[in-house]
Design goal:
alpha/beta
């Protein structure tokens, strides 16, 4: 009887290679197959840590078609490791569908602890961390306005991801739905040499980025709305 393999989700550094864990390196070296969101982006990382396993692309455009083949590998006793371009797989990156299908086939799944962008951004923000709402990337078109209206009433700290080319527009939208005086904290290029966190009102942060280039991936933390009971006190 062939024992089934195991699916590992392996976090990779979001910028600084020193954040790669010893265990992540070992799992990737021992895996029979490594799945990468973009093999071109992951190749330098694997080379740096002298990881020579076979690597195949697994991204949002092929994950549904490729999953059946991956499940077959796992059932044959092969261990599969999934990585994304940066951070933890399945957190605003491919991985959820594969995990769900593996569990349906009673295949063991394990996610290693490691790098992810929203945790340091949240802690750096100075906003409450006991309760928070992670939204990742908001819908690009359909449903975006509705989501903003829902989040405007959210009392927990809100965490959003945004790309550099949409960042300034997103700040304009926040002015409309959250108000110009809502406190936010914006982290970019986390763990990298030119990483920074900018805190202030939506207006103040927008003014800062009008004179500083909006480069890199952004994590935006938004202070939660005041509870309705407190609003009535003023």
């Amino acid at each position: 009887m062939i024992l089934q393999g195991k699916l590992y989700l392996v976090p990779t550094p979001i910028g600084n290679l020193e954040d790669m864990t010893f265990r992540a390196i070992r799992i990737l070296k021992e895996a029979d197959v490594v799945l990468a969101e973009d093999t071109r982006n992951s190749a330098p990382l694997l080379k740096h840590f002298e990881i020579n396993q076979k690597m195949y692309a697994h991204h949002q455009h092929n994950e549904h078609q490729a999953t059946n083949e991956i499940i077959r590998f796992l059932k044959e006793g092969k261990n599969v490791a999934l990585i994304s371009d940066a951070g933890t797989p399945a957190i605003s990156d491919p991985g959820f569908y594969l995990v769900r299908e593996a569990l349906k086939h009673e295949i063991e799944v394990e996610c290693l602890p490691g790098a992810t962008a929203f945790v340091p951004a949240l802690v750096n923000s100075g906003f409450p961390t006991d309760r928070f709402c992670f939204e990742g990337f908001l819908p690009l078109k359909k449903g975006r306005q509705t989501r903003y209206k829902q989040l405007a009433e959210e009392e927990r700290t809100i965490i959003l991801y945004e790309s550099p080319h949409r960042f300034v527009k997103t700040l304009d939208e926040m002015t409309t739905y959250f108000g110009a005086e809502r406190q936010i904290s914006v982290s970019r290029e986390l763990t990298k040499v030119f990483g920074e966190t900018v805190r202030g009102t939506v207006t103040e942060v927008k003014e800062y980025f009008e004179t500083h280039p909006a480069k890199g991936e952004f994590v935006i933390c938004v202070a939660g709305a005041l509870p309705k009971s407190k609003e009535k006190e003023y």
